[in-house]
Amino acid sequence: MYDYIIVGAGSAGCVLANRLTENLETSVLLLEAGGNDDLPAIHDATAAPSLLQTAVDWAYFTEEEPHLKHRKIYHPRGKVLGGSSSTNFMTYARGNQHDYDYWQELGNKGWSYADVLPYFKKAENWESGTSDYRGVGGPINVTDPSSINPLTEAFIEAGVELGWPRNNDYNGASQGGFGFHQSTVHHGKRSSTADGYLHPAENRPNLVVWMNTLVTRVLFEGTRAVGIAYLKDGKEQQERVKKEVILSGGVFNSPQTLLLSGVGPADQLRALDIRVVSHVPGVGHNLQDHPGFDMFFATKPSFTQHGNEPGGIAFMKTQPDLPDADLQLLFCPFFLFPTVPGKGYTIVVLPTHPQSRGHLTLRSTDPTQPPAIFANYLAHEAEQQTLVKGMKLVRRLAQTTSFARYTERETIPGSQVQSDAQIVEFLRENVRTISHPVGTCKMGHDEMAVVDEQLRVRGVEGLRVVDASIMPIIPHGNTNAPTIMIAEKVADMIAHNVQ
């Protein structure tokens, strides 16, 4: 028997597997539904779009979204060693200090910014060097763009021209302003948790990794987790555990596994004839995500220096009295997901603090069937208005003197979309996920909390959830760096037996 069974070798699971097995007396079994991360496109830092809807992607879809013209929204999630850190667009953004202070204000002791900062620093190797806010020597390499594209420089200069500060490190002392995009890249190749954490630990005698193995449920004796059941080559088998089962399957898979195991809203479980182990009503609820859209601008025919990686990023307040930025922009000196001919640049617009909440439920007791996901995008009026303001702000940026020498015209949405009503209509037809879903097993102490501040599942013993699903509130920014931080922090808790 293993001391720990970790379900999911993704952004969090690889971190846990490495850190827990640093103690050679601790044995770990790591289970991954996907396969090895040996696909060349995974390691090519410019090839992320080619991984979408392939064998390394769970390729989830929401149900019909009532506020998005009943479209089903595609959700990429990594199904491979490294999880989404092996398939995402490699943006490194931590969120801001207030995010984590607010987590603690919600009753989650030990999750303030001061508490989590050491784990952000521990995880990274920031190529620009150590500081009060940044770390060097960690498993995940973080770097600025390999070359500075003139379009990216124009983006930053445009922000300064309109009154926002230039910020050389949005993961440092302050988040706001315009700066260069930081990426989890090393010498032109992706720096995933599989590369940084798992592969260096694979030869340890106390770590065993099983791939292409789908965990179907947690096994319980009474309310104590004692192992897992899994599918291998179409047959269900079981494995027992000495200390704990740790679910690190991500925002959709971890709550699905809890529900299939009898942990969740009792009425939902009974409706599917699943034996109730513990009534935890919050499982699958509190789903949060950053919805966003893309704006395309064609460049003048004389301009030819387009890039092939994201170059700029901005965190902006749409009104000065806000405590934090409510808008994030991601700048690409090329057409991202091109839908128009020609060449140009893309600005991705998203609200940092979405108020809409969704949920997921089981479709059936078949673990191979994806859960039913209801993201509920743009259900909240404030979310719509932030995106309307975002489009107008991007248009102001494109009209600055900094951009004038490069920009020929706006191609999407185009000049025909002008009024607020027209913009909202465009949003309903074009908003997509920015792939930051969190929150479905949230940490806290209210009746909808699923885990406590040690990420132990309520109402049972020997079971934790460690991944993006435990975030009570989505951070202002991308979610991969915070997920890695969470795993670093909990691995430390387990190693030091924090109660």
Give the SSE map:
Blueprint: E1 2-7, H1 13-20, E2 28-31, H2 40-43, E3 60-65, E4 71-75, H3 97-105, H4 113-123, E5 124-126, E6 140-142, H5 150-161, E7 177-180, E8 185-186, E9 189-190, H6 193-201, E10 207-210, E11 214-221, E12 224-232, E13 235-247, H7 253-260, E14 263-264, H8 266-271, E15 278-279, E16 291-299, E17 312-316, E18 327-332, E19 344-351, E20 359-361, E21 372-374, H9 381-398, H10 401-404, E22 407-412, H11 420-430, E23 432-433, E24 463-465, H12 480-495
Parallel strand pairs: 1-2, 1-13, 2-10, 5-6, 13-24, 14-15
Antiparallel strand pairs: 3-4, 7-17, 8-9, 11-12, 12-13, 16-19, 16-22, 16-23, 17-18, 18-19, 20-21
Helix pairs in contact: 1-6, 1-12, 4-12, 9-11
Report what the structure shows.
The model has no long low-confidence stretch (mean pLDDT about 95). Strands 1, 2, 10, 11, 12, 13 and 24 form a seven-stranded mixed β-sheet that branches. Strands 7, 16, 17, 18, 19, 22 and 23 form a seven-stranded antiparallel β-sheet that branches. With about 500 residues, this protein is of the alpha/beta class. About 25% of the residues lie in helices and about 25% in strands. A hairpin with a 2-residue loop joins strand 11 (about 215-220) and strand 12 (about 225-230). The chain has helices at about 15-20, 40-45, 95-105, 115-125, 150-160, 195-200, 255-260, 265-270, 380-400, 400-405, 420-430, 480-495, and strands at about 1-5, 30, 60-65, 70-75, 125, 140, 175-180, 185, 190, 205-210, 215-220, 225-230, 235-245, 265, 280, 290-300, 310-315, 325-330, 345-350, 360, 370-375, 405-410, 430-435, 465. The radius of gyration is 22 Å and the shape is globular. The chain is built from twelve helices and 24 strands.
